[in-house]
Write a structure and sequence with these properties.
This protein is α+β, with helices and mostly antiparallel strands. The protein contains 3 helices and 6 strands; from the N terminus they run αββαβαβββ. Helices cover about 25% and strands about 20% of the residues.
Length: about 130
């Protein structure tokens, strides 16, 4: 099988504001791209599948209507302190804190923020699942 690159694309209301949020606010490295789009490199892309109602409940939002879009992007870090740090960094960059970092029922520590367009990001530390190089 040929190697493939997966890309997550978010539809945003204000491209310039979103570029500032992800590029300057969160420090994502921006790639050269045409003016009508912006690409940022990440340390790999995974797809996680989880029940819609369960994921909405985990974030503490309603599964229908404007409370939940049906997707949450996960950002995994190596400690509980890193969860809180990333949440603080996102809020300072203009995100809305949806759920502060807290112990989870699966044995980890996680919180949620919403980007300027309302996309949910889960920031999580899972002590049972290694993140990064050995």
């Amino acid at each position: 099988m040929k190697p493939r690159i997966s890309m997550l694309t978010l539809g945003v209301r204000d491209l310039a504001a979103s570029i500032r949020f992800y590029g300057q606010g969160l420090g994502f490295p921006r790639m050269e791209s045409p003016p009508e789009v912006a690409f940022f490199t990440l340390n790999g892309t995974w797809l996680g599948l989880y029940g819609r109602d369960a994921l909405a409940g985990d974030a503490g939002v309603a599964p229908e209507g404007s409370g939940f879009s049906g997707i949450a992007i996960a950002h995994n870090v190596d400690s509980e302190a890193a969860v809180d740090s990333v949440l603080d960094e996102a809020v300072a960059a203009g995100a809305k804190l949806v759920k502060p970092g807290q112990k989870t029922d699966w044995g980890g520590y996680a919180g949620y923020f919403a980007d300027p367009d309302g996309y949910l990001w889960e920031v999580a530390h899972n002590p049972l699942f290694r993140v990064g190089p050995e």
